[in-house]
Known about the structure:
single chain, 4 strands
Amino acid sequence: xxxxxxxxxxxxxxxxxxxxxxxxxxxxxxxxxxxxxxxxxxxxxxxxxxxxxxxxxxxxxxxxxxxxxxxxxxxxxxxxxxxxxxxxxxxxxxxxxxxxxxxxxxxx
Length: 108
């Protein structure tokens, strides 16, 4: 299989999974969203925005050359471990677990 064919296959798989996820989110949230917010598509719209942000971040990561990531691998690993420690020490506790940083309306 050529690289081009493999990339097409991967693109089809990603599009299929995103489509199935959209159908699942819409079918699970349309009625509760209509009851709670008066708009049946509100939570589905939030899901589409999250997909857009994720795709944008993914495309941004694709633009980074892999040799640049290799040079920064140790630093990135230290930042990741530091982030885990920071969440454990300063993160918001939800149901007994420290998993999130609260930044106003945003949770990371």
